[in-house]
Design brief:
The protein contains two helices and three strands; from the N terminus they run H-H-E-E-E. The protein is α+β, with helices and mostly antiparallel strands and about 140 residues long. It has a three-stranded antiparallel beta sheet. It starts with a helix and ends in an 8-residue tail after the last strand.
Length: about 140
């Protein structure tokens, strides 16, 4: 009788494993997908900050945007993301004078995670950073 009971419990374990396995795989896929979205959000935050920081470090309107775009590319490359897939926009409120505000927005497309209702999640992750042009910097 003990042999039959042992076989039944072993078969029961297989059935329970087969029932739980899809839920476990769905949970793992969701964690990986959401982790990727959070990673891209952190990368775009860093790229926006670096772009704004490098843009405001010069009072030269010709070099400021170029420095911002290069800084955002390097920041995204540092996170292992392709900077060619990013959209970087820069606005200068009040001209490019001392104390005026520079705003940088970095957006990056991410694929949806392989979970149900993933189409409800954002497919484009964006971050914005605003900084004033340095007041104490001289034109160079």
């Amino acid at each position: 009788m003990s042999r039959v009971a042992g076989r039944r419990s072993q078969g029961q374990a297989y059935v329970e494993f087969i029932i739980v396995l899809p839920l476990l795989l769905l949970l793992i896929a969701g964690i990986i997908g959401f982790g990727q979205m959070i990673y891209v959000k952190l990368a775009t935050e860093a790229a926006a900050w670096a772009a704004a920081r490098h843009a405001v470090s010069t009072l030269n309107i010709d070099r400021g945007p170029a420095q911002a775009f290069v800084a955002s590319r390097y920041a995204l490359q540092g996170f292992g993301l392709n900077p060619d897939s990013a959209w970087v926009t820069l606005w200068a409120y009040g001209g490019w004078n001392r104390g005026s505000r520079i705003q940088v927005r970095v957006c990056y497309d991410v694929p949806p995670p392989p979970v149900p209702y993933a189409y409800l999640l954002p497919s484009r992750i964006c971050s914005t950073q605003t900084m004033p042009v340095y007041r104490w910097k001289s034109k160079w």
